[in-house]
């Protein structure tokens, strides 16, 4: 029995199921529409979860069938996976980097090249996990953010055949695979509680989704489904669709709930796959759905770079005709990749089959080329690419200044002293003896309770309040919500740190509190409960309002064609409109005599959101955090507004 039967597509492979291509089309359309405009399908990212289950089904079905025949040739299997997937991803990475070199400043281009480098090596999920989160606003501008899921799949393909071979040789029952599913499911659920980013990005936390498809494949091979009443099969299809649409409607990337966002689409996918061979799935075999499904891989590869580049050039607020154009462009470019790269390298039958050595050579050479080009651009050493073609502003000097400003923010914001935790730290990493020390003057202190906005808030307050009277209690990515919502997306370290700082704020020597956070991720009830709690402690409370959040790092936005540092505003690139939430915060603060509201966005964007101060200093170090110089300028201007805080600290 030939290994060619493992090909994802092909006229001569056994048990080719047309409706599987239709199911793929649903998954890819969910993802594309979500990426074009989240408001249409706020949870369209579950399309990736569906892909994982489909992949588990297809790969397991082929491998188990092969083992029952002439056995599995592991080397051939791995070679085929690399030959099938690598050339297309390398083609897209190199093409995208070359196109981007005419649009982006080289500093930002170098960041893309880093991700592209690891994408070619099927490790971008690990790189992205170590450097950012999928739903972070800065990550949304990463050209190759979407390749994380492809890396997860390829990593799964490495060891899953080994498990199946062991399972078959040891003659374990299907319950062995079922036990793996249960163990990986609850392991992923536990990990999502400890570190939601790890649960999202890393392959072990996604195993249960592949295994769900694998279980269905084994059931079909063993013909466990034979004899089931067609009515029940149709009911399984309908129930599966309900699970998928439930997840698409209620999963939330901002407040990631594992059971809704990951388990629900997996259950739905397994039920649909269970009915995929029955007449109940015939509607998935329609020509239109199959056309889209056959191009799902190419569509997935090209759609995100198309969206990111367009958003960078015209801004985050895209009219409907632009969104429609993005869909059309994605299909056009996908067709090119499908015709030029996927189809020529795909095995269809023995007569058309390229020799294995040729296909393997193409895959290896493409991987080498992808690594070489990505590494060259990463290091800024590729002639004609490392220097950006945009010359209207010196965007690279802005990027360099932003990097220096970030280092200064780290030191002046006391991050290096352990007063500001990173996203993966535990409460034990906080240097309480230093950061929560009593004011040596014997007067009261002000506690800063913040997420990643805390560093610049400390610098800002130091322009008004003696540094020794400021107690930073900040943690990146940890929203200071009271009472703690215990969301599945909250890490254990964040839970513990929130308990600590909301208890510490009760101390007698803490006379005032500053609350600074990325309000984008809050609900009004959460804001109310937190402000009410702080106000009830009879402290003077300062609530810093919303900040501008841009769709891309400002160091890259200043390099867009026609942007002038002195005159151009960043308003077209505002990612979200939080003005209504800002007014709600103001109203909340007005309800309490001891709560004072500071309107940051009004000051930063009074005459348009600018990229530099009047003296040429950079304002933003990324897409929302401000530099120490901007915080200084802000703090000096707020001296009058924070008079009540000064008064209570001087008592």
UniProtKB/TrEMBL annotation:
Keyword Mitochondrion belongs to the record: no
Keyword annotations: Acyltransferase, Membrane, Transferase, Transmembrane, Transmembrane helix
Ranges for domain SGNH: 419-634
GO molecular-function terms, A-Z: acyltransferase activity, transferring groups other than amino-acyl groups
Spans traversing the lipid bilayer: 21-37, 43-64, 85-104, 116-135, 172-192, 198-219, 231-250, 256-276, 297-314, 320-341, 362-380
GO cellular component annotations of the record: membrane
Positions of the Acyltransferase domain: 18-335
InterPro entries associated with the record: Acyl_transf_3_dom (IPR002656), Acyltransferase_3 (IPR050879), SGNH (IPR043968)
Superkingdom of the organism of origin: Bacteria
Single GO BP term: polysaccharide biosynthetic process
Alphabetical list of PANTHER family matching this protein: ACETYLTRANSFERASE (PTHR23028), ACYL_TRANSF_3 DOMAIN-CONTAINING PROTEIN (PTHR23028:SF53)
Protein's name according to its UniProt entry: Acyltransferase 3
Species this chain originates from: Glycocaulis alkaliphilus
């Amino acid at each position: 029995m030939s290994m060619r039967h493992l090909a994802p597509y092909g006229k001569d492979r056994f048990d080719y199921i047309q409706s599987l291509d239709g199911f793929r089309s649903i998954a890819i359309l969910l993802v594309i529409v979500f990426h074009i405009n989240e408001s249409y399908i706020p949870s369209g990212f579950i399309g990736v979860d569906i892909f994982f289950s489909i992949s588990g089904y297809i790969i397991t079905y082929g491998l188990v069938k092969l083992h029952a025949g002439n056995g599995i040739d592991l080397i051939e299997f791995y070679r085929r996976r690399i030959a099938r997937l690598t050339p297309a991803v390398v083609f897209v990475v190199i093409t995208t980097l070359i196109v981007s070199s005419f649009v982006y400043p080289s500093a930002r281009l170098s960041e893309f090249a880093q991700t592209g480098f690891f994408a070619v090596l099927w490790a971008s999920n690990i790189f992205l996990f170590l450097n950012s989160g999928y739903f972070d606003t800065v990550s949304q501008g990463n050209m190759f953010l979407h390749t994380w899921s492809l890396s997860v799949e390829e990593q799964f393909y490495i060891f899953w055949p080994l498990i199946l071979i062991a399972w078959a040789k040891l003659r374990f029952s299907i319950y062995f695979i079922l036990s793996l599913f249960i163990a990986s499911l609850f392991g992923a659920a536990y990990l999502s509680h400890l570190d939601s980013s790890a649960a999202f990005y890393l392959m072990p936390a996604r195993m249960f989704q592949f295994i769900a498809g694998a279980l269905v494949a084994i059931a079909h091979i063993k013909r466990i489904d034979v004899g089931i009443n067609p009515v029940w099969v149709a009911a399984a299809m309908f129930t599966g669709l309900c699970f998928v649409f439930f997840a698409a409607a209620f999963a939330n990337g901002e407040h990631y709930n594992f059971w809704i966002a990951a388990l629900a689409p997996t259950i739905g996918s397994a039920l649909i796959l269970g009915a995929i061979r029955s007449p109940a799935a015939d509607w998935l075999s329609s020509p239109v759905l199959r056309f889209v499904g056959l191009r799902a891989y190419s569509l997935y590869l090209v759609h995100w770079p198309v969206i990111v580049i367009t958003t960078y050039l015209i801004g985050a607020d895209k009219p409907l005709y632009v969104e429609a154009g993005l869909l059309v462009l994605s299909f056009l470019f996908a067709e090119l990749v499908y015709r030029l790269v996927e189809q020529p390298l795909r095995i269809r039958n023995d007569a058309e089959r390229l020799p294995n050595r040729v296909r393997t050579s193409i895959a290896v050479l493409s991987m080498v080329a992808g690594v070489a080009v990505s590494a060259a651009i990463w290091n800024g050493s590729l002639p004609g690419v490392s220097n950006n073609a945009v010359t209207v502003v010196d965007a690279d000097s802005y990027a360099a200044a932003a990097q220096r400003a970030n280092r200064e923010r780290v030191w002046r914001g006391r991050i290096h002293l352990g007063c500001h935790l990173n996203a993966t730290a535990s409460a034990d990493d906080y240097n309480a003896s230093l950061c929560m020390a009593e004011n040596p003057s014997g007067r009261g202190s002000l506690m800063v309770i913040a997420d990643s906005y805390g560093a610049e808030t400390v610098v800002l307050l130091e322009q008004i309040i003696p540094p020794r009277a400021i107690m930073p209690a900040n943690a990146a990515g940890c929203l200071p919500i009271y009472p703690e919502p215990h969301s599945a997306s909250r890490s254990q370290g964040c839970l513990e740190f929130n308990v600590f700082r909301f208890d510490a704020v009760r101390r007698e020597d803490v006379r005032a509190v500053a609350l600074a956070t990325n309000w984008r991720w809050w609900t009004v009830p959460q804001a109310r409960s937190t402000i009410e709690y702080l106000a009830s402690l009879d402290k003077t409370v300062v609530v810093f309002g919303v900040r501008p959040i841009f769709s891309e790092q400002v160091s890259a936005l200043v390099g867009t064609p026609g942007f002038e540092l002195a005159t151009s505003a960043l308003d077209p690139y505002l990612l979200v409109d939080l003005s209504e939430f800002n007014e709600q915060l103001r109203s909340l603060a007005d309800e309490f005599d001891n709560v004072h509201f500071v309107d940051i966005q009004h000051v930063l964007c009074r005459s348009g959101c600018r990229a530099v101060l009047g003296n040429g200093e950079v304002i933003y170090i990324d897409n929302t955090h401000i530099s120490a110089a901007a915080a200084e300028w802000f703090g000096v201007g707020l001296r009058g507004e924070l008079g009540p805080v000064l008064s209570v600290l001087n008592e």
